[in-house]
Amino acid sequence: MRQNLILLGPPGAGKGTQAKMLVDKYAIPQISTGDILREAVKSGTPLGIEANSHMSRGALVPDEVVIGIVKERLKRGDCGKGYILDGFPRTIAQADALFSYLNECGCPITEVIDIKVPKDHLVIRLSGRRVCRSCGAGYHIEFNPSKDGGRCDRCGGELFQRDDDREDVVIKRFETYEAQTTPLSEYYKKKGQLTTISGIGDVEAIFDDICKIVDER
Ligand SMILES: [Zn+2]
């Protein structure tokens, strides 16, 4: 049984963790657009060279180039039992192109899983994170505080907040994500392929929810 999955979820929803667990359980690769773009650029494929000409001047890589690179990746042998797409499609044009391509191959997307975490919850989850400047150990002011608050338990290093975790940045990223993804989740909902699950709670419990959906399809 092939599992051609798409994972949706805002930054901080735990999508990366769930994807890794799915990779192990179903023995399918996680295909992240960022990774395969970088890889295509590095190996100097014609599409990689074209992608780089946009990336190097800070421009977005056009849909047709991204789609071409994703198609090349999906042809590899390790996708024989399926794959998890992460960060693709990002636009309706990409979703349409993917749909036509997979239909031609006779192996459509089997499930789109949307991991939902409300904005307020994400703000608490992300803006409370602290990292040790010396050893990189991670803490959370509420869920996993260090003993003295400002110093690392392991090495005594100073704890700081990453720029990405600042409340205003978290809110901005969430809103950007929502604006970009809402049309996509509507698109897959209309096709009857979308299942929404809550990303709040125990990682294992969330994973069980996802596996049930995948196995029942
Ligand atoms: Zn430390």
Short description:
Helix content is 49%, strand content 16%.
Radius of gyration: 19 Å
| Gross morphology | globular
What's the level 1 CATH class?
A: Alpha Beta
What is the CATH superfamily label?
Answer: P-loop containing nucleotide triphosphate hydrolases
| Total E-strand runs | 8
Structure characterization notes:
- With 217 residues, the chain is of the alpha/beta class.
- It has one domain (3-28, 80-216): Rossmann fold, CATH 3.40.50.300.
- The chain contains 8 helices and 8 strands, in the order βαβαααβαβαβββαβα.
- The chain has helices at residues 15-26, 33-43, 46-55, 63-74, 92-105, 119-127, 167-190, 203-216; strands at residues 3-8, 30-32, 82-86, 111-116, 129-132, 138-140, 159-160, 194-198.
- The strands form 2 sheets. The protein has a 5-stranded parallel sheet with strand order 2-3-1-4-8, sandwiched between helices.
- The longest helix is centred in the last third of the chain and has 24 residues, at 167-190.
- The protein is globular.
- The N and C termini lie close together (10 Å).
- The model has no long low-confidence stretch (mean pLDDT 94).
- The structure holds zinc ion (ZN).
- The site of zinc ion (ZN) has 8 residues, from loops.
Structural features:
217 residues; alpha/beta; Rossmann fold; 5-stranded parallel β-sheet; 3-stranded antiparallel β-sheet; 8 strands; 49% helix; 16% strand; globular; binds zinc ion
